[in-house]
Specification:
The chain contains twelve helices and eleven strands. By secondary structure, it is of the alpha/beta class. Among the domains are: about 80 residues, Orthogonal Bundle (Arc Repressor Mutant, subunit A), CATH 1.10.10; about 130 residues, Periplasmic binding protein-like II (D-Maltodextrin-Binding Protein, domain 2, 3-Layer(aba) Sandwich), CATH 3.40.190. Strands 3, 4, 5, 6, 7, 8, 9, 10 and 11 form a nine-stranded mixed β-sheet that branches. Strands 1-2 form a two-stranded antiparallel ribbon. Helix 8 links the parallel strand 7 and strand 8.
């Protein structure tokens, strides 16, 4: 018996038949006749020296050898297909597929896309708003924007900007609550989307502590999606502890204000991620450089705040909880 692999066409025929448990359906998938597919499987069985299928009257069943071979064949063709797609993408410098969380997509990317399209008319952008961890090859993604702590040792990882949180509200509502003390009586909104992530916590109680106020609000509307919480603040419903990336454009353009001057800085941050070696592909480099320019446009918002590291605010006991490594946002 030899370990030499059989012809790829025969293995492909077997894989299709094992998935469909039908020679006819497998032949249709591969666009060959059932007789041709049957011949390929027969040649594979001769190469192996034992049958892979039990041929029944109107169906087929895998033999023990077939059951052993089927998972590896399926995984092998999936891996080969992913590698082929990845290699083909290297030739494409006109399409860019980006994945980011729904909140970042809605509040950071979408409002700015016109500028990128104007500056890069030859690049076709495709977006996947998803929170799940991505496999760049399997999911055919070029760039991922993710929020968390890292590290990302197997990827090219570029921190986009440090992240802070500060109370934001409409100018009209701010006129009713001009001081931080007045927030005791304001309608408080809670963005709970990263409560489980930020360690140490950057919550309302911590912010009031940084402002020198002993207050821990517990009542108010709660939002599991960060962009919904920001939208509620924009509608004048209340005041939310807004994260920099999600509110900075609204602050820069005056739809929201941050009148209390204090922001909490967290070590969690958004990162620009792509496979190592891909960062200088033309469309990826163009998108990365554009993001950095856009961040610089609103840098004055951060400069207008007193930004306090959350570690400087909380007692040591609150700093001892483990730091989560990753958040697909």
């Amino acid at each position: 018996m030899t370990d030499r692999l059989p012809p790829l066409t025969a293995l492909r025929a077997f894989d299709a038949a094992a998935r469909h448990m039908s020679f006819a359906r497998a032949a249709a998938e591969l666009n060959v006749t059932p007789a041709a597919l049957s011949f390929q499987i027969k040649s594979l069985e001769e190469h192996l020296g034992q049958p892979l299928f039990h041929r029944l009257n109107r169906s087929v069943e895998l033999t023990e050898a077939g059951r052993v071979l089927a998972p590896g064949a399926a995984e092998g063709f999936q891996t080969l297909s992913a590698a082929w797609r990845a290699a083909r993408r290297l030739q494409d410098d006109k399409t860019l597929t980006v994945t980011a969380g729904p909140a970042f997509t809605a509040k950071w990317l979408a409002p700015r896309l016109y500028e990128f399209a104007q500056a890069n008319p030859d690049i076709e952008l495709r977006f996947s708003a998803s929170l799940r961890m991505m496999d760049f090859d399997r999911d055919e993604v070029d760039v991922a924007i993710r929020f968390g702590y890292g590290p990302d040792p197997d990827l090219f990882a570029l921190p986009l900007a440090f992240e802070w949180l500060t109370p934001v509200l409409t100018p009209q509502l701010a006129a009713q609550y001009p001081t931080a003390e007045d927030l005791r009586h304001a309608p408080i909104l809670f963005d709970t989307s990263v409560d489980h992530l930020l360690r140490p916590p950057c919550d309302w109680e911590t912010w009031f502590r940084a402002a020198g106020i002993d207050f821990n609000p517990t009542h108010g509307a709660r939002f599991s999606q960060a962009d919904h919480a920001v939208d509620a603040a924009l509608a004048g419903v209340g005041v939310v502890l807004g994260r920099r990336a999600l509110v900075v454009k609204d602050l820069h353009e005056g739809r929201l204000v941050a009148p209390y001057g204090i922001a909490l800085r967290t070590k969690a941050h958004f990162r620009f991620l792509c496979p190592k070696g891909a960062e200088d592909r033309p469309q990826i480099r163009a998108f990365r450089d554009w993001m950095l320019r856009e961040i610089e446009k609103t840098a004055s918002v951060s400069e207008s705040l007193t930004i306090i590291p959350v570690e400087d605010v909380l007692p040591k006991a609150a700093l001892d909880s483990p730091t989560p490594r990753q958040r697909p946002e």
